[in-house]
Amino acid sequence: MVSGFLSKEYFCDREEELSTLINHIENQRNIVIYGNRRMGKTALIKCLFESLKNEKTECFHVDIMACQNLNSVIQLIGKAVINKYGKNKLGEGFTKEFTKLLSQLKVTIGIDPLTHAPEISMGLQNSEDAETTLHEIGKYLTSKSEQIVFCIDEFQQITTFSENNTEAIFRNWMQSFPTIRFIFSGSHKSMIESMFTQKNRPFYQSCNLLFLNPISEPLYQTFIQYHFQKEDTLISMEDIHTIYQWAEGQTYSVQLQCNLLYSKNVGITESSIAEVQQDILDQDKPYFGYLYNMLTLQQQKVLKAIASNLENLPLLSSRFIQNHNLGSMSSVQGAIKSLLDKDLIELTSENYVLTDVIFKNWLKSIP
Q: Distance of CA 200 to CAs 16, 29, 174, 197, 307, Å?
C-alpha cells in the first residue's frame, strides 16, 4: 500500500497522535495537523475518521491543494456537503432542509456529457457570496443530529489567493459554528506555523497544533517485518535500516520502496534495494530534470550543496560556502530566498533542508 488509507492493519503506528486527535475531538477542540510532505498526514486523518465512524459522527475531507482562489474552495466544500447528504438523490427525494440549502447556495445540477454523472455548480460571484455560502453550509451542518468533523487539507494554500481576507473569512466561519469540529492540515511547516502562531493573524491561538515527526525506525522495523513475513518473505533489520535511511523516515518513501521490493518477488538484498531506489529516481527523472533546469546556475549549485550537506553546516557559514564554491554570501542568500519561494527548501529548527527527500536523492545522484 503506497498511498491512501486502506485499513488500520496497514497503518504503521501513530497511536499516540491518533489518541491525541480523538481526545481533541471529544473535548470540542479544533486542530491543526502539519508536517513535512508525504509524512502521512492525510492517511492519519482518514484513520481518525475510521475511528470516529459511527451513527453519531459525520466526517468531511476536502483537499484544496489545486485551488487558486476562494470561490474554488467554497465550491469544493459545498460539493462535499451536497454529495454527502444528497448522494444518489440528485434531482429527487430531497428533504425540505436540503432543498432550502440548494436554493441558498444557488446550486445548478446538470449531467456531465462525457461521464453522465451528476454535475454540481454554485453561483458565486465575490467574497461576500463566499461568506454567505459558508454561513449557510454551517447552518445546515449544525442542524444535523450527528457530530460534524470537517477537515480542510493543504490549508496553507489559502495564503496564496488574491483575496486578502480569506484567512479572516475561514476564521469567522469556524467561530460562528462552535459545535462543528474543524481540522486544518498542511504540508508547508513555516506557512502553517505563521498562520496559527502569529499574533496579527486571524487564526492566532485558535487551534491545537500537532506536528507529525517521522515514525521511528524501530517501529517501522517491526511493522515492515510483520507484513513481509505474512507473505513468506524475509527482510533483515539491516535491509530496513537501508530503506529507512534513504527515505530519511519519510512515510511515503519508506512504503514506496517496500511496495516495489515486494512486487519484484525476488530475494531482498542490498543489490535489489539499490535497484528499487534507482527505479524510483528514474521514474521521477523527467519531472526532477524539469524543476532543476528551471533554476539559475547559482540556485542549482546551492540546491545541490544543501542536498549533500552531510555535516549540516549553516548555509551562510564561510565553511559551507567555500566547500561548495558558491561565491559571495549575498548570492547564496538570494538563491536561498528563491528556493524558499519555489517551495523546494524549507527552514527547520536546525537548518535549511529540501522539502522532497526523493528529489534530494536525485540531486545527489547527478554529477
A: 32, 21, 18, 9, 35
Cα–Cα distance between 354 and 295 in angstroms, integer? Answer: 15
Domain 8-212 annotated CATH 3.20.20.10: no
Listed residue (195, 183, 144, 223) closest to 47, CA to CA: 183
CA–CA dist 247, 277 (Å, integer): 10
State how far the Cα of 195 lies from the Cα of 174, in Å rounded to an integer.
15
What band does 54 get if pLDDT is binned at 50, 70 and 90?
confident
Place of cell 432543498: 99
> Residues 208-237: pLDDT tens digits?
999 988 888 998 888 888 888 887 888 899
Handedness of CA 247, 6, 279, 186 (dihedral sign): negative
Instruction: Answer for the pair 69, 163: CB distance below 8 angstroms, yes or no.
Output: yes
Residue 327 has pLDDT above 80, yes or no: yes
Burial 77-113 (b: 16+ CB within 10 A, else e): bbbbbbeebbeeebeeeeeeebeebbeebebeeeeee
Q: What are phi and psi of 217, to 5 degrees?
A: -60, -45
pLDDT, mean of residues 293-299: 97
d(CA 314, CA 318): 9
Hey, what's the cell of 149? 468533523
DSSP at 326: -
- Say how many residues make up the chain: 367
Instruction: Report the distance separating Cα 148 and Cα 62, nearest Å.
Output: 14
**pTM of the full structure:** 0.82
**Grid coordinates representing 119?**
454535475
Interacting residues of 95 by C-beta distance below 8 A, sequence separation 6+: none
Task: For CA atoms 220, 223, 226, 228, give the dihedral sign.
Answer: negative
Segments making up each domain of the chain, as ranges: 8-212, 215-294, 297-367
**What does DSSP assign to residue 285?**
H
CATH architecture of the region 297-367:
Orthogonal Bundle (1.10)
- Measured from the Cβ of residue 166, the count of other Cβ atoms closer than 10 Å reads 20
Q: Helix 217-230 vs helix 251-264: angle between axes, to the nearest 10 degrees?
A: 20
Neighbours of 195 (CB within 10 A): 25
